[in-house]
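Subgroup meeting minutes
Present: P.N., E.W., G.H.
Scribe: E.W.

1. P.N. recapped why we're keeping a running log of single-chain structure predictions: easier to compare across weeks, and new members can see raw inputs and outputs side by side.
2. G.H. added today's entry (139 aa).
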Amino acid sequence: MRLSAAGVGLAVSLSAAHAQGPLLLPSGVEATPFDTIWDEELSIIRLRFIVPRLAEPGSLYSGDPERVFEDMFWLCETQLAASFPDGPVWLDQGWNSVVISLMDRPIEFGTRDPDVFQVFEWFSLTMDGCELELDEYHD
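Output recorded in log:
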Protein backbone atom coordinates (compact mmCIF):
# COMPACT_ATOMS: atom_id res chain seq x y z
CA MET A 1 0.00 0.00 0.00
CA ARG A 2 1.45 3.37 -1.00
CA LEU A 3 1.21 6.26 1.38
CA SER A 4 -0.15 9.55 0.20
CA ALA A 5 -0.47 13.13 1.36
CA ALA A 6 -3.12 15.07 -0.50
CA GLY A 7 -1.79 17.91 -2.62
CA VAL A 8 1.82 17.52 -1.53
CA GLY A 9 2.99 14.16 -2.84
CA LEU A 10 4.92 13.44 0.37
CA ALA A 11 4.18 11.32 3.37
CA VAL A 12 6.41 11.20 6.41
CA SER A 13 6.39 8.26 8.77
CA LEU A 14 7.91 9.26 12.09
CA SER A 15 6.34 6.69 14.38
CA ALA A 16 7.89 3.67 12.63
CA ALA A 17 11.35 5.22 12.75
CA HIS A 18 11.11 6.19 16.41
CA ALA A 19 9.75 2.79 17.44
CA GLN A 20 13.04 1.21 16.41
CA GLY A 21 16.17 1.65 18.51
CA PRO A 22 19.72 2.30 17.31
CA LEU A 23 21.11 0.02 14.60
CA LEU A 24 24.64 -1.32 14.78
CA LEU A 25 26.09 -0.85 11.30
CA PRO A 26 28.70 -3.17 9.76
CA SER A 27 31.45 -0.61 10.55
CA GLY A 28 30.57 -0.67 14.26
CA VAL A 29 28.95 2.78 14.13
CA GLU A 30 25.47 3.19 15.63
CA ALA A 31 22.73 4.88 13.60
CA THR A 32 19.32 5.79 14.94
CA PRO A 33 16.44 5.87 12.46
CA PHE A 34 15.10 9.41 12.29
CA ASP A 35 12.36 9.45 9.69
CA THR A 36 11.21 7.95 6.43
CA ILE A 37 9.88 10.15 3.66
CA TRP A 38 7.76 8.52 0.97
CA ASP A 39 8.05 11.00 -1.92
CA GLU A 40 5.37 9.86 -4.34
CA GLU A 41 5.99 12.73 -6.74
CA LEU A 42 9.55 11.49 -7.46
CA SER A 43 8.94 7.80 -6.54
CA ILE A 44 11.71 8.03 -3.94
CA ILE A 45 11.90 6.57 -0.46
CA ARG A 46 14.16 8.68 1.76
CA LEU A 47 15.54 6.85 4.79
CA ARG A 48 17.15 9.25 7.26
CA PHE A 49 19.39 8.31 10.19
CA ILE A 50 21.19 10.10 13.01
CA VAL A 51 24.85 9.24 13.56
CA PRO A 52 25.99 11.61 16.35
CA ARG A 53 29.74 11.17 15.76
CA LEU A 54 29.48 11.36 11.96
CA ALA A 55 31.77 14.36 11.50
CA GLU A 56 34.12 13.87 14.47
CA PRO A 57 37.78 13.42 13.50
CA GLY A 58 38.11 10.43 15.85
CA SER A 59 35.05 8.58 14.58
CA LEU A 60 35.19 5.27 12.73
CA TYR A 61 34.33 7.17 9.53
CA SER A 62 37.23 9.59 9.76
CA GLY A 63 38.94 9.61 6.37
CA ASP A 64 37.23 6.41 5.19
CA PRO A 65 34.48 7.13 2.64
CA GLU A 66 34.33 3.45 1.65
CA ARG A 67 33.26 2.54 5.19
CA VAL A 68 30.51 5.17 5.04
CA PHE A 69 29.30 3.85 1.67
CA GLU A 70 29.26 0.24 2.91
CA ASP A 71 27.12 1.26 5.89
CA MET A 72 24.76 3.23 3.65
CA PHE A 73 24.40 0.30 1.27
CA TRP A 74 23.68 -2.01 4.22
CA LEU A 75 21.07 0.44 5.53
CA CYS A 76 19.42 0.57 2.11
CA GLU A 77 19.24 -3.21 1.83
CA THR A 78 18.09 -3.97 5.38
CA GLN A 79 15.74 -1.05 5.93
CA LEU A 80 14.17 -1.41 2.48
CA ALA A 81 13.33 -5.01 3.34
CA ALA A 82 11.92 -3.87 6.71
CA SER A 83 9.71 -1.32 4.93
CA PHE A 84 8.26 -4.04 2.68
CA PRO A 85 7.57 -7.08 4.89
CA ASP A 86 5.58 -8.75 2.08
CA GLY A 87 8.69 -9.05 -0.08
CA PRO A 88 10.22 -7.05 -2.94
CA VAL A 89 7.07 -5.32 -4.21
CA TRP A 90 8.60 -1.82 -4.36
CA LEU A 91 8.77 -1.73 -8.16
CA ASP A 92 5.19 -3.00 -8.48
CA GLN A 93 4.14 -0.15 -6.20
CA GLY A 94 6.01 2.44 -8.27
CA TRP A 95 9.05 3.09 -6.05
CA ASN A 96 12.27 3.29 -8.07
CA SER A 97 14.88 4.91 -5.80
CA VAL A 98 16.07 5.12 -2.21
CA VAL A 99 18.12 7.95 -0.75
CA ILE A 100 20.00 7.13 2.44
CA SER A 101 20.85 10.16 4.58
CA LEU A 102 23.15 10.22 7.59
CA MET A 103 23.26 13.33 9.78
CA ASP A 104 25.03 14.16 13.01
CA ARG A 105 21.86 15.66 14.55
CA PRO A 106 18.18 15.91 13.66
CA ILE A 107 17.17 18.37 10.99
CA GLU A 108 13.86 18.81 9.23
CA PHE A 109 13.90 17.54 5.66
CA GLY A 110 14.66 20.33 3.18
CA THR A 111 16.13 22.61 5.84
CA ARG A 112 19.66 23.94 5.49
CA ASP A 113 21.87 24.35 8.52
CA PRO A 114 25.65 24.75 8.11
CA ASP A 115 26.15 23.32 11.60
CA VAL A 116 24.55 19.97 10.68
CA PHE A 117 26.85 17.52 8.91
CA GLN A 118 25.00 15.30 6.42
CA VAL A 119 25.93 12.73 3.79
CA PHE A 120 23.60 11.23 1.19
CA GLU A 121 23.71 8.32 -1.23
CA TRP A 122 21.23 7.60 -4.02
CA PHE A 123 20.33 4.00 -4.89
CA SER A 124 18.19 2.60 -7.69
CA LEU A 125 15.76 -0.14 -6.77
CA THR A 126 15.85 -3.45 -8.57
CA MET A 127 13.97 -6.67 -7.87
CA ASP A 128 17.08 -7.75 -5.94
CA GLY A 129 17.22 -4.63 -3.80
CA CYS A 130 19.49 -1.58 -3.84
CA GLU A 131 21.97 -0.72 -6.57
CA LEU A 132 24.25 2.30 -6.59
CA GLU A 133 22.82 5.01 -8.87
CA LEU A 134 25.61 6.09 -11.21
CA ASP A 135 23.78 6.87 -14.45
CA GLU A 136 21.94 10.06 -13.57
CA TYR A 137 22.36 13.12 -11.45
CA HIS A 138 19.31 13.92 -9.33
CA ASP A 139 18.44 17.28 -7.78
